[in-house]
Amino acid sequence: MAARRPGKGDGRARGFSRRQPGGRGAPAPQSGGVRRTIPPQGPFPSSGPAPVPAGPFRLGAAEGATPGKWIRIWDERMPRTPLELIPLPASSGRSAIAAGTVDAGLVRLPIEREGLHVIPLYDEAPVVVMAAGSDLTAADELAASDLDGEVLIAPVDDVLSFTAAGATLPVFDPPETIADAVALVAAGVGVLVVPMSLARLHHRKDVTFRPLRDGPVSTMALAWDAERTTALVETFVGIVRGRTANSSR
Questions:
Q1: Is residue 143 part of a domain?
Q2: In DSSP terms, which residues pair with 208 in a beta bridge?
């Protein structure tokens, strides 16, 4: 019988299969050839959004700080990550930041900046706190010279270190807190110079205050440990700086 010639449709006679490359019918490599490894075809990692940090984000706030607007924006953008507001001393919150008690803090300048990132935010005008019946209430605004002869009270947690050349120093030990100093002012003992936010915070019906036009301002700032710049800290910094939810750093 004559040898059968390979037909047009007889793939086996040519050593090939009609199956796709890599299938069961793929030819074995010739002797001395190089075997190719087909890379895996999946499954691939999801390209969805990154997981939201669980938190909480601990924000320290010095007395008189007003973070309400930023907290509202945080709640809108980070509904699954709670923000805890932690009170800080009026004069300094550096120790809480350094100890890791808070992730970031709204503090008053000046502050020791070594090891910290600090962003100044806004300045507060100073006011003179006085008894409601004081003669100083006759003016809508005061100058340092208007305090001549007045007993100028400075508490231990004073944040301005203000002095007036004509004012009188107290003969008693300084009160521990601004609240204690306001109580002395209410009793008619003297006057107190503080940022306006602290005068409002400690307001009572038997005291009032007037702006001090030539007094020192108090600068509020956001500060955090430079070695603990977490994703949550960066998110809050963006809120404070006015970034939108979709803007990049």
A1: yes
A2: 130
Per the CB < 8 A criterion, the answer to whether 125 and 234 are in contact is no
Residue 16 lies in a domain: no
* Residues 156 and 186 placed together within one structural domain of the fold: yes
Q: Which of 57, 56, 106, 104 is nearest to 224 (CA)?
A: 104
Phi/psi-derived region of residue 55, left when phi > 0, alpha when psi is between -120 and 50, beta in every other case:
left
Query: For the whole model, what pTM was predicted?
Result: 0.75
Which residue segment(s) compose the domain that 139 sits in?
126-216
d(CA 167, CA 130): 14
Q: What is the b/e burial string over 33-52, where b = at least 16 CB atoms within 10 angstroms of the residue's CB?
A: eeeeeeeeeeeeeeeeeeee
Does a structural domain hold residue 91? yes
SS3 (DSSP) at 223: strand
Q: 160 in a domain, yes or no? A: yes
Among candidate residues 218, 217, 161, 224, the one with its CA nearest the CA of residue 192: 161
Q: What's the token pair of residue 175? A: 């009160």
What tens digit of pLDDT does each residue of 67-114 get?
A: 999 999 999 999 999 999 999 988 778 999 999 999 999 999 999 999
Q: Tell me the per-residue pLDDT of 195-227, one tens digit each, with 9 for 90 and over.
A: 999 999 999 999 999 999 999 999 999 999 999
